Amino acid sequence: MSEPISLQRFHAVAEQLKLPMGLVVDELTIDTGSANAETDPFSLKLESPGAVVVRIGETNVRNYLETLKPGGLRDFSVSCREGMIFVKATARILLDVPVTAQCKLVIDDGERLNVELVEAQVVGGDAKRLVEGQINRVNPIFNVADMPIALILDSVAVNDGFVILHGRATL
Question: In the chain, how many H helices and how many E strands?
Fold first, then answer.
Protein backbone atom coordinates (compact mmCIF):
# COMPACT_ATOMS: atom_id res chain seq x y z
CA MET A 1 0.00 0.00 0.00
CA SER A 2 1.37 3.40 -0.96
CA GLU A 3 1.55 6.50 1.21
CA PRO A 4 -1.62 8.66 1.29
CA ILE A 5 -1.74 11.79 -0.84
CA SER A 6 -2.34 14.95 1.16
CA LEU A 7 -4.74 17.51 -0.36
CA GLN A 8 -4.97 21.07 0.88
CA ARG A 9 -8.36 21.48 -0.83
CA PHE A 10 -10.71 19.20 -2.75
CA HIS A 11 -13.27 20.66 -5.17
CA ALA A 12 -15.45 18.59 -7.48
CA VAL A 13 -18.49 19.22 -9.68
CA ALA A 14 -20.74 16.50 -11.06
CA GLU A 15 -23.39 17.39 -13.64
CA GLN A 16 -26.60 15.67 -14.74
CA LEU A 17 -26.65 12.92 -12.09
CA LYS A 18 -29.58 10.59 -12.77
CA LEU A 19 -30.68 9.16 -9.43
CA PRO A 20 -32.07 5.60 -9.15
CA MET A 21 -35.67 6.84 -8.76
CA GLY A 22 -35.37 8.87 -11.96
CA LEU A 23 -34.83 12.47 -10.83
CA VAL A 24 -31.92 14.21 -12.55
CA VAL A 25 -29.75 16.52 -10.42
CA ASP A 26 -28.43 19.38 -12.53
CA GLU A 27 -25.30 19.88 -10.46
CA LEU A 28 -23.63 18.54 -7.33
CA THR A 29 -20.69 20.57 -6.01
CA ILE A 30 -18.44 19.54 -3.15
CA ASP A 31 -15.81 21.84 -1.70
CA THR A 32 -13.65 20.77 1.23
CA GLY A 33 -10.67 21.79 3.21
CA SER A 34 -7.80 19.40 3.68
CA ALA A 35 -8.17 15.71 2.89
CA ASN A 36 -6.14 12.56 2.40
CA ALA A 37 -6.47 10.27 -0.61
CA GLU A 38 -5.45 6.67 -1.17
CA THR A 39 -4.80 5.57 -4.74
CA ASP A 40 -5.20 1.77 -4.67
CA PRO A 41 -8.08 1.37 -4.16
CA PHE A 42 -9.09 5.01 -4.45
CA SER A 43 -10.58 6.56 -1.32
CA LEU A 44 -10.85 10.06 0.07
CA LYS A 45 -10.93 10.97 3.77
CA LEU A 46 -11.94 14.50 4.76
CA GLU A 47 -10.43 16.05 7.86
CA SER A 48 -13.68 17.98 8.40
CA PRO A 49 -17.05 17.96 6.62
CA GLY A 50 -17.08 19.59 3.19
CA ALA A 51 -19.70 21.99 1.85
CA VAL A 52 -22.13 20.46 -0.64
CA VAL A 53 -24.54 22.26 -2.96
CA VAL A 54 -27.14 20.34 -4.98
CA ARG A 55 -29.04 22.15 -7.75
CA ILE A 56 -32.19 20.69 -9.32
CA GLY A 57 -33.81 22.71 -12.10
CA GLU A 58 -37.55 23.02 -12.57
CA THR A 59 -37.22 21.29 -15.97
CA ASN A 60 -35.82 18.19 -14.26
CA VAL A 61 -38.58 18.31 -11.62
CA ARG A 62 -41.15 18.49 -14.44
CA ASN A 63 -39.52 15.60 -16.33
CA TYR A 64 -39.51 13.50 -13.15
CA LEU A 65 -43.22 14.16 -12.57
CA GLU A 66 -44.02 13.39 -16.23
CA THR A 67 -42.26 10.03 -15.88
CA LEU A 68 -43.86 9.23 -12.51
CA LYS A 69 -47.39 10.36 -13.52
CA PRO A 70 -48.72 10.39 -9.94
CA GLY A 71 -52.46 9.68 -9.90
CA GLY A 72 -52.56 9.69 -13.67
CA LEU A 73 -51.74 13.40 -13.77
CA ARG A 74 -49.99 14.52 -16.95
CA ASP A 75 -48.89 17.56 -18.97
CA PHE A 76 -46.95 19.05 -16.06
CA SER A 77 -45.70 22.60 -15.86
CA VAL A 78 -43.36 23.43 -12.96
CA SER A 79 -42.15 26.79 -11.68
CA CYS A 80 -39.66 27.16 -8.81
CA ARG A 81 -39.91 30.63 -7.29
CA GLU A 82 -40.55 32.56 -4.09
CA GLY A 83 -39.67 29.58 -1.89
CA MET A 84 -42.35 27.36 -3.45
CA ILE A 85 -42.86 24.92 -6.29
CA PHE A 86 -45.90 25.76 -8.41
CA VAL A 87 -47.26 22.83 -10.40
CA LYS A 88 -49.89 22.75 -13.11
CA ALA A 89 -51.10 19.46 -14.57
CA THR A 90 -54.05 17.77 -16.21
CA ALA A 91 -56.21 15.19 -14.44
CA ARG A 92 -58.68 12.89 -16.15
CA ILE A 93 -61.94 12.96 -14.16
CA LEU A 94 -64.42 11.93 -16.85
CA LEU A 95 -63.01 14.90 -18.76
CA ASP A 96 -59.57 16.51 -18.84
CA VAL A 97 -59.44 18.96 -15.93
CA PRO A 98 -56.62 21.39 -15.10
CA VAL A 99 -55.12 21.01 -11.61
CA THR A 100 -52.80 23.49 -9.89
CA ALA A 101 -50.79 22.96 -6.73
CA GLN A 102 -48.49 25.05 -4.58
CA CYS A 103 -45.93 23.03 -2.62
CA LYS A 104 -43.09 23.66 -0.21
CA LEU A 105 -40.04 21.46 0.37
CA VAL A 106 -39.03 20.20 3.80
CA ILE A 107 -35.87 18.39 4.87
CA ASP A 108 -36.59 15.27 6.92
CA ASP A 109 -33.88 14.19 9.38
CA GLY A 110 -31.06 15.65 7.24
CA GLU A 111 -31.55 12.80 4.75
CA ARG A 112 -34.70 13.25 2.69
CA LEU A 113 -36.32 16.14 0.85
CA ASN A 114 -40.11 15.87 1.02
CA VAL A 115 -42.84 17.74 -0.80
CA GLU A 116 -45.60 19.24 1.36
CA LEU A 117 -48.79 20.47 -0.24
CA VAL A 118 -49.77 24.04 0.62
CA GLU A 119 -52.73 24.46 -1.71
CA ALA A 120 -54.34 22.67 -4.65
CA GLN A 121 -57.14 23.70 -6.98
CA VAL A 122 -59.13 22.03 -9.70
CA VAL A 123 -61.62 23.86 -11.89
CA GLY A 124 -64.70 24.29 -9.76
CA GLY A 125 -63.21 23.48 -6.37
CA ASP A 126 -60.56 22.38 -3.93
CA ALA A 127 -58.27 19.56 -5.14
CA LYS A 128 -56.28 19.20 -1.95
CA ARG A 129 -57.41 15.61 -1.24
CA LEU A 130 -56.82 14.58 -4.85
CA VAL A 131 -53.24 15.92 -4.84
CA GLU A 132 -52.40 14.95 -1.23
CA GLY A 133 -53.11 11.34 -2.12
CA GLN A 134 -50.37 11.47 -4.75
CA ILE A 135 -47.67 13.20 -2.68
CA ASN A 136 -46.59 9.87 -1.12
CA ARG A 137 -45.75 8.58 -4.61
CA VAL A 138 -43.40 11.54 -5.06
CA ASN A 139 -41.80 11.62 -1.60
CA PRO A 140 -39.02 11.74 -0.92
CA ILE A 141 -38.18 13.75 -4.03
CA PHE A 142 -34.50 13.59 -3.00
CA ASN A 143 -32.76 11.11 -0.71
CA VAL A 144 -29.09 11.25 0.34
CA ALA A 145 -29.00 7.44 0.18
CA ASP A 146 -29.13 7.80 -3.64
CA MET A 147 -26.03 10.00 -3.79
CA PRO A 148 -22.52 8.77 -4.62
CA ILE A 149 -21.14 10.46 -1.49
CA ALA A 150 -22.27 10.49 2.14
CA LEU A 151 -23.92 13.80 2.99
CA ILE A 152 -26.25 15.53 5.43
CA LEU A 153 -28.83 18.08 4.24
CA ASP A 154 -28.92 21.36 6.15
CA SER A 155 -31.19 23.69 4.17
CA VAL A 156 -33.30 24.03 1.04
CA ALA A 157 -34.14 27.11 -1.03
CA VAL A 158 -36.49 27.38 -4.01
CA ASN A 159 -35.97 30.32 -6.32
CA ASP A 160 -35.09 31.44 -9.84
CA GLY A 161 -36.05 28.12 -11.43
CA PHE A 162 -34.05 25.88 -9.08
CA VAL A 163 -34.31 23.83 -5.93
CA ILE A 164 -30.99 24.38 -4.12
CA LEU A 165 -29.92 22.12 -1.27
CA HIS A 166 -27.03 22.94 1.05
CA GLY A 167 -25.39 20.29 3.12
CA ARG A 168 -22.20 18.69 4.37
CA ALA A 169 -20.15 15.84 2.91
CA THR A 170 -18.99 13.36 5.51
CA LEU A 171 -16.48 11.21 3.62
Answer: 2, 14
